């Protein structure tokens, strides 16, 4: 089980030191976690993910080049054609879908061959970082074999629910846990002690499986 820490802004080096698998950097000027400036040098063992919301391919590729991003996460209404253009440049693509009380999984079909991962987040007023979970039972109807990231309101306080979910059939293709706002002292500044505790619980559970 992989771990992604998203919404990095103020203390990325501290987060990188605890070795999550992925770190997400948001390039969306309406987000309080919007990154301005250059990502500091971090270990290559951590993959840098650029998070975009309805950005042009020119803007996306500019950020990929500037920051040395390994992956692109598309958090808006990006069409499959955009995913395909990015994927054809050998850049891994995560396509995000917001889920409320239900979800029409047929919308995934056009993206099956043009992205590497899905990410399921809580549908809310913001594109991400809303701080609460959706009903994970919705994923019982997941029709794909594509690995996905589970996101939305995941924190240290609901780690037991996360671990229970990972043993359920609908978690078969759950590739990574994505955390953000529940691990912050302010938007973009992560609580390192909470992240360490969360990562340890996940790692301990995986080692027992």
Automatic annotation (TrEMBL):
Pathway membership, UniProt: Amino-acid biosynthesis; L-tryptophan biosynthesis; L-tryptophan from chorismate: step 3/5
Parts forming coiled coils: none
Substrates-to-products reaction catalysed: N-(5-phospho-beta-D-ribosyl)anthranilate = 1-(2-carboxyphenylamino)-1-deoxy-D-ribulose 5-phosphate
GO biological process, one term: L-tryptophan biosynthetic process
Record key words, sorted: Amino-acid biosynthesis, Aromatic amino acid biosynthesis, Isomerase, Tryptophan biosynthesis
A single MF term (Gene Ontology): phosphoribosylanthranilate isomerase activity
Endpoints of the signal sequence: none
Listed Pfam families: PRAI
EC number: 5.3.1.24
Enzyme class: isomerase
N-(5'phosphoribosyl) anthranilate isomerase (PRAI) domain: residues covered: 18-199
Annotated InterPro entries: Aldolase_TIM, PRAI_dom, RibuloseP-bd_barrel, TrpF_fam
Entry similarity comment: Belongs to the TrpF family.
Name under which the protein is recorded: N-(5'-phosphoribosyl)anthranilate isomerase
Gene source species: Croceivirga radicis
Record gene name: trpF
């Amino acid at each position: 089980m992989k771990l992604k820490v998203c919404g990095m802004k103020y203390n990325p080096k501290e987060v990188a030191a605890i070795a999550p698998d992925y770190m997400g950097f948001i390039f969306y000027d309406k987000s309080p976690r919007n990154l301005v400036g250059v990502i500091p040098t971090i270990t290559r063992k951590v993959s840098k993910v650029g998070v975009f919301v309805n950005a042009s391919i020119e803007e996306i590729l500019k950020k990929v080049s500037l920051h040395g991003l390994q992956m692109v996460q598309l958090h808006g209404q990006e069409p499959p054609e955009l995913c395909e253009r990015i994927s054809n440049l050998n850049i891994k693509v995560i396509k995000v879908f917001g889920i409320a009380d239900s979800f029409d999984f047929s919308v995934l079909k056009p993206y099956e061959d043009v992205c590497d991962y899905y990410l399921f987040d809580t549908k809310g007023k913001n594109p991400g970082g809303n701080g609460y979970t959706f009903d994970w039972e919705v994923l019982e109807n997941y029709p794909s074999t594509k690995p996905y990231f589970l996101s939305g309101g995941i924190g240290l306080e609901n780690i037991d629910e996360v671990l229970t979910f990972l043993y359920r059939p609908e978690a078969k293709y759950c590739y990574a846990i994505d955390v953000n706002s529940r691990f912050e002292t302010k938007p973009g500044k992560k609580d390192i002690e909470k992240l360490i505790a969360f990562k340890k619980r996940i790692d301990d559970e995986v080692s027992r499986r």
